[in-house]
Amino acid sequence: MATTALIVDDEAQCRDTLSSLLAERHPNIHVIGIANDVPSGTALALAHMPDLLFLDVEMGRMTGFDLLKAIAPHRPHVIFTTAHEGYAVRAIRFNAVDYLLKPVVPEELDDAIHRALIALGGTKSPADVTSLLHQVANDRQIALPTSEGLTMVQIEEILYCSSDNNYTEVYLRDEKKPQVVSRPLSEFDAFLVQQGFVRIHQSHLVNRKHIKRYVKGEGGEVIMRDGKNLPVSRRQKAELMEVLERL
Q1: Which of 134, 163, 179 corresponds to the end of one domain?
Q2: Which of these, 55, 96, 65, lies nearest to 181 by C-alpha position?
Q3: Do residues 224 and 201 make contact, with C-beta atoms less than 8 angstroms apart?
Q4: What pTM did the predictor assign?
Q5: Are residues 104 and 191 in the same domain?
């Protein structure tokens, strides 16, 4: 049985490129519809319930996230298409949701299709998209995927994040135990640096608003508002000093 797909993008070139590449390289994927805006894309998605959705991030005054909210609880596997950097794209990366940068590169499309077919053939939860929608709708919040589900926190409540191999411990204000997230610190770095955080060490990413004091040394250390002393690496010292001088 063929995998069905829907393309929703306001750029004709992107729609044509995706349609052509799918026909040439992935004949097992049947494109059941192509739309150039959110309303028509929503109508097609609700009518045909596609397995796979190629979805532009920004389409005029509406976004792909508006479409996803409109078709809930239906959750096709989503591959976002975008030519723009910004908060939404950082949220997409953080939530490990597939996306393609325009112009679409055939090999990158192949990789995204491969991942999609694996996900569609298994029991993958749509939690990543649920988390993403929450973050885009609440751009000062972050949804932390933990072993117990999703924990919604205000970004300003995060004191610092510390690496524990492939996990990250997220320390929150007024909470004694950290939230443990099965994502490497590098993913938090890419997302939270734009929100006022600074990497002070290969193992630590801190919220600059919660730094209480800096103590001099070879690299030095910072004392956080919860009393925790965190080391500063020599490589990161100059960047930290620049950030602190701007406060």
Answers
A1: 134
A2: 96
A3: no
A4: 0.60
A5: no
- Cβ of 165: how many Cβ atoms within 10 Å? 7
156, 209 contact by CB (below 8 A)? yes
**Side-chain half-sphere CA neighbours of 50 within 13 A:** 25
User: What would the pLDDT profile of 182-210 be if each residue is shown by its tens digit?
Assistant: 888 988 887 788 788 999 999 999 999 99
Degrees to nearest 5, angle at CA 102 with 97 and 108 = 60
Based on its alpha-carbon atoms, the radius of gyration of the chain, rounded to whole angstroms, reads 21
The residue count of the chain comes to: 247
Buried b or exposed e, range 77-90, using 16+ CB within 10 angstroms: bbbbbbeeeeebbb
Q: Which structural domain, as residue segments, surrounds residue 26?
A: 3-134
Peptide bond into 73 cis (omega under 30): yes
In angstroms, the CA 128 to CA 91 distance is 10
Q: Does one domain contain both 17 and 125?
A: yes
CB atoms within 10 A of CB 20: 11
Cα(81)–Cα(201) distance, integer angstroms: 33
